[in-house]
Each structure stands twice: as C-alpha cells, then as structure tokens.
Amino acid sequence: MAKWAIAIHGGAGVDPNLPEQRQEEAKRLLSRCLQIGVDTLKARQSAVDVVELVVRELESDPMFNSGRGSALTAKGTVEMEASIMDGRQRRCGAVSGLTTVKNPVSLARLVMDRSPHSYLAFAGAEEFAREQGVETVDNSYFITEENIGMLKLAKEANTILFDYRIPLPGADTCSASVGSLVPDTSLQMNGLPISIYSPETVGCVVVDSTGNCAAATSTGGLMNKKSGRIGDSPLIGSGTYACDLCAISCTGEGEAIIRSTLARDVAAVMEYKGLNLQEAVDFVVKERLDEGQAGLIAVSRNGEVACKFNSNGMFRGCATEDGYMEVGIWE
C-alpha cells in the first residue's frame, strides 16, 4: 500500500516587508487547511476529494487570492478561475470567468464529473453552475474593502500591483502614494515591461493511500487585469496537472507558466529523463521559466512531496504519512 502525502500553497511571490502579524495569520490558515487534508486522508478519502475540500477552504478565506478576496478586474469586478485533475485516467475539469460561484474548484469538479467537456468559461460556466444547483452569491461577496483600495492604487499607477493586499508597514491602503507601493522594476510579462505584480493563487496536491494522485488550483487572477484575461491556473498542463506518476499545482507569473507548460513538464521529465520528484521540480523551475518568476508544489505516487520557487517566498505547507508536517513562507 502506498503512503499518502499532501502539499498546499497560497501563492508564490511575497512582500519581504510583510508584517509579522500577516505572516502568522497566513501560516495559521495554511496549518488549518493542511490539517483538514491530513484528517481526510487518514479517513481514507480519495485524492481528488481531498484536493477539492482543501481548496474550497482556501477559497472561503479572504487571506489569499481565490474565491472570497479575489483580485479585482479593471472594472472593479471579480472573475475567478479554477481547475482540478484526477490522475486516474487523467480526468480533468476547469472553469474561467466566474462571477457568482462561491467555490470555483467545486464547479471545476462538476465539469469533470457531470459534463462531456473539460473546460467551461464565462456565461457558459455560470449557466452550468445554475443547472447543477451549486451555491452562488452576488459578486460583491468576493470583494473586500482592502482590494478596492489597492485597485485604486493600481489604476493611479496604470499597472498591475504586487502583493496588492499587503501595504508596506505603516502605509494606509487608501492614502499611501503609488510610488511607495509600486517599486521600479524591469520585470516583463509576455515580453512587455510591467511593474511587479501579485502572482497569488491557491492550490493543493495529494497522493492517497492507494497511490492515486490529484491536483487542484484556484485564483482570482491579477489586480487591475483586463476583463476576460485567463491565466495558467485553469489550464491543464500549465497551472495544474496529475497523472499516474505525480500531481502538480503552480503559482506565479501566469504567462511564463503557460509558455513553459510547467506542471506537465514535471511529469514529463520524470517519465522521459527518469528523474525523481524533487529532481524534476528543481529542473523545470531552473530550466523552463526563462526569466519568469513562479513556484510549484508536487507529490509523487510513492508518497514523496516537493516544492520549489524562484520568487521571493511562497506560502506553502506539506505533510506525509510518516508524520512530517511543515508550513513556511521563505526559503
């Protein structure tokens, strides 16, 4: 019998000035969600059930950028996206452009289980949600006062903000100057210069006691993004992937992750180069991202767990059947 393992993340790319109180709040949330996953695995639930449950918990807390607390579009609305993949037979479901679905990851699960499709978006996804009777709420449920203030700053700077929900120590979200929150940088997205932006996302990967792997990822996207923008999180093979070997969830610069098909590449180098999980994770982050900044979490069917990031920190946690459990932010 295989040994179970689980890893979760709350996004790669963390403000180095993140106040200690916020760091502790983030770690408490990660610990709580990780323990939910551990308890469910001990109850012998399937990998795909566990990743859905854990990501639902992360979506329901405004700490990270998914579900409630999602980043705002340039229009001041929320457009969410998510995906889920079951390594058994590589079944998958994904959704984008959600504005009323309380838990996007669960709608992605329904796309996988109850539709002939793999991906639904915008009006079609919302219609499917109503047909399936999933819980919906007004778009205002997802919007926080903090994000309204940070969108205002993003618009004043005409850019996409980094760590949009975390002002610098002593800064007032609504009155701080744009220059104090948006650093000068040469970072590019898709070959075009931008200011540093927030790549937060949430995700979970699991291998259960039968050796089956699953992954799920959910996000609100980028602050001040164009309406209709789709990132890596709902794209199978880019932000999310699971097969009989492993499961991966990515976070970071979506455009770089898309170009590199980062999640699938972990499985590919394990299969074709014979690398173990940590070697594969290290290889793709080093060799496939070019100048992009990102991170990922992964598990293997053998009960291994791994993470890697080239950004400034990544909110993350992991646990194994052997009793190992860790939550961290920095290297």
UniProtKB/TrEMBL annotation:
The active site is at 201 (nucleophile). Substrate binds at residues 229-232, 251-254. Keywords: Autocatalytic cleavage, Hydrolase, Protease. The keyword Amino-acid biosynthesis does not apply. It catalyses: Cleavage of a beta-linked Asp residue from the N-terminus of a polypeptide. GO terms for molecular function: asparaginase activity; beta-aspartyl-peptidase activity. Its EC number is 3.4.19.5. The record marks 200-201 as: Cleavage. Pfam families: Asparaginase_2. It comes from the Eukaryota. GO terms for biological process: proteolysis. Heterotetramer of two alpha and two beta chains arranged as a dimer of alpha/beta heterodimers. This is beta-aspartyl-peptidase.
